[in-house]
Amino acid sequence: MSHMVLYRESGTMDLRQFDRAFRPYEAKLLAQEKLRDRIGVREVDRPTYEKYITGPIERFDHRRNAFMATIPGNPFGEEMRQRLRARGIEKGIPLPPPPYNELEPEDRIGYSLNAAVRRLCQEYHPQPLPQTPLEGQVEVTDRIQMSRLIKKAALFFGAQMVRITRVDPRWVYRDLEIPHPFAIMVVVPHVRSLNATAPSHYSGVSVWDTYSRLKNITVQLADFIRLLGYDAMYRETLGMKVPEMLMVPTAIDAGIGELARNGHVLSPEFGINMRLKAVTTDLPLEVDKPISFGVREFCMVCEQCAAFCPAKAIPFGPPTQEVADPLYNNPGYRKWYVNAERCLTFWTVNRKKWATCGGRCIVACPWNKPDKPWHNLIRRVAIHAPLMVKKMLIWGDKTVYRRGKSRGYALFSE
Questions:
Q1: CB 378: neighbour CB atoms within 10 A?
Q2: Do residues 136 and 226 make contact, with C-beta atoms less than 8 angstroms apart?
Q3: What is the CA radius of gyration of the chain?
Q4: Pair 308, 267: CB distance under 8 Å
Q5: Which residue among 140, 146, 230, 268 is least packed, with the fewest CB closer than 10 Å?
Q6: d(Cα 220, Cα 128) in Å, to the nearest integer?
Q7: Is pTM, for the whole model, over 0.85?
């Protein structure tokens, strides 16, 4: 369904010039909506994960985030820190850089690119611009119109998808409070050619590139909203800082996608080949609905992310209530519990060859294909076909793309 901007009656804000200038971004929004309609993505009233909640959901302590648990002095994660120290990692994640004379000459280019793109993400933490006072505040009489405007602005700043939801207090880390009612979810995909090298320094470049771009986009978007006269703030998600919100359930609430086997959000357009960040605000907005397109059923028969995970951190088989790695996972769901410690420890095996795995599970996911007519046809079949046909599609994907086991698999020890 299209939400074309409607012009207001005389005496109120006239956005015709804005609409002319931002016509390419309106076209992009419409194209995304049409693609979802064409392949059969359904909007639903409640996020699909709610069917699989089995108990009370407690707010998660940010110190139990696996990245935070690597930092000395954290009351959680001492056993993991001991294992990391045995591998020469004393100060936690992110890893200290190896001496250049220990790098192979061909790895120095990849490492240098990695360090260059991640610096912006790690060191750029600007204070928000001052908020326009109430007497200069832009009046919002049409939430749909304002939501459309915000989405187009975010696309202009560099986002590839933007969706809006309400802030659910369950997804805010314990001991932190977010006073805003709305979360604007921003999506940036990885560069596939870089990601395809995982694990390597170049796949790490892809990861840090998305996070750096997300930092720029969300800072600019928050500043834009503050200058309209409303409070807004980008929300930190990286575990090595102090994370504020759980991105996965918030993105599912916003209708970006559904929960996949590897614990990521899987969207119809990008698969799991994307990263997420949020801006929260009190700007009056119209929220988007969650979506349903059969991700759980597809992941049940796929298992490719589990098969190609070099750390063997992603489970095979059906979802379960049994919590793997309970320190770093919240109970109360029937889902696939990823072993965060195994995943994180794999990164530290050979820091001379990669700064992060970069997501071998992302490379293996059959959904991660370009927006092309042939791939979109396959997406539609994958959504609507019976299980046997889904299995055939997965077999065909493996056959055509000739995937081998992830590099570095044998380096991981129990």
A1: 19
A2: no
A3: 22
A4: no
A5: 140
A6: 9
A7: yes
Task: Show Cβ contacts of residue 365 under 8 Å, excluding neighbours closer than 6 positions.
Answer: 260, 262, 266, 271, 272, 273, 302, 304, 305
pLDDT(61) > 70: yes
Token pair 């019976």 is found at 386
Kindly report, residue by residue over 122-175, the tens digit of the pLDDT. Answer: 888 888 999 999 999 999 999 999 999 999 999 999 999 999 999 999 999 998
pLDDT, position 12: 59
Instruction: Determine the Cα–Cα distance for residues 290 and 164; give it in Å rounded to an integer.
Output: 10
The pLDDT of residue 344 is above 80: yes
As a whole number of angstroms, the distance between CA 216 and CA 214 comes to: 5
Using the CB atoms, write b or e for 19-30: b if 16+ within 10 Å. beebeebbebbe
Q: Is the pLDDT of residue 103 over 60?
A: yes
For the segment 285-289, the average pLDDT, to the nearest whole number, is 98
Q: How many residues would you count in the chain? A: 414
